[in-house]
Design goal:
Helix content is 48%, strand content 9%. The protein has two helices and three strands; from the N terminus they run αββαβ. It has a three-stranded antiparallel sheet with strand order 2-1-3. Strand 1 and strand 2 form a beta hairpin. Bound molecules: zinc ion (2 copies).
Length: 89
């Protein structure tokens, strides 16, 4: 009986260790992918195109506006200066 309990506890410890060392990193990587601008992959997304609801970093959208390539990098939908709004997370 005591032996079984010890084994159970060991299983529990192993499970805990797996949880603390395994999952958060993978989750963090996925989160980083989600919040990183898909146009430059460098900066965080902080500006939304209201027309198609795609989100990029301000620099990428500013660059497109100033070079008159006013198309969404994701879906190529044209957008105007007034369609771009900052988002606050
Ligand atoms: Zn960008
Ligand atoms: Zn789009």
């Amino acid at each position: 009986m005591e032996k079984q309990q010890a084994e159970l506890r060991r299983d529990l410890e192993a499970h805990k260790q797996f949880k603390t060392s395994g999952t958060p990193d993978a989750e963090l990587d996925q989160l980083k992918l989600l919040i990183r601008c898909s146009a430059c992959n460098l900066r965080f997304k902080n500006t939304i195109i209201m027309k198609c609801c795609h989100v990029f970093c301000k620099e990428c959208l500013d660059m497109r506006i100033s070079t008159r390539q006013r198309k969404c990098p994701n879906c190529s939908d044209p957008f105007g200066v007034g369609d771009v709004k900052p988002i606050y997370l």
